[in-house]
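dude i think i finally got it to work??
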Amino acid sequence: MGKKLKIGITGGIGSGKSTVAAIFAVLGIPVYDADSRAKWLMVHQPELVAAIQKLFGAQAYQADGRLNRSHIADIAFNDPQKIQKLNALVHPVVKLDYEQWHDQQNDVPYTLKEAALLFESGSAYELDAVIEVFAAQEIRIQRVRKRNGWTRQHILSRIRHQMPERQKRKLADYVLVNDGKKGLINQVLALDKKLRKRGEAQLMSPKK
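look at this
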C-alpha cells in the first residue's frame, strides 16, 4: 500500500491560511500547525533548548522556562545571521516532529502542514503538494490591523520579510482566493474532493 499524501498550506500574513486550515479540519483532515508547534518545541525539547541557550546565552529563557523573545530579538537585530542559525536549529526538529505526527494519522488520504514560511524554509519541497491561500495586500493589511491593532508600517515590514505573494502563487500547486468575494468554503470543498481522490489513489498504489 502507498502512503497518505503530505499537503502543505501557506499564505502571507493576513491571508487567512489558518481559517482555511480550520475548514479542512472540520472536514476531518488532520492539521499540523508548524508555527505553533515550533514555539512549543523551543521550550519543551531539551536538546533544542540547550542549543538555543548556546546560541543566545542563558538569558534566552526566562526564569519560568518561557522563551525570552525580547532578548533574542535584541541580539538578532544587531546580528541577523543569528536568526538564520536559529532557523537552522529549529527546522530539523520541527521536520522530525511533523514526520512522526504524520505517520500517526490513520484512515485519512492526506494531512495538512500549515506554516507561514513553507517555501522560505525549504520544507515545501518535502511535501506532495502545496496550497497557497491568496488575498490582495490591502485586504491583508486591513485584516491584520483589525485583528492585531498593528500600524500599517509594522504590517508592511512583516510582509517585506515574507516571500512575495506572486512568487508563492507560481510555486504552489493549488491556490485558494480568500478575498471575501469568491466563496471560500466552496473552494475548499472542491479542493478537498480533488485531494481525497488523489490521496486515495496513492494509498491504493503499490508501496515504493
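The chain has a mean pLDDT of 93.
im so relieved honestly
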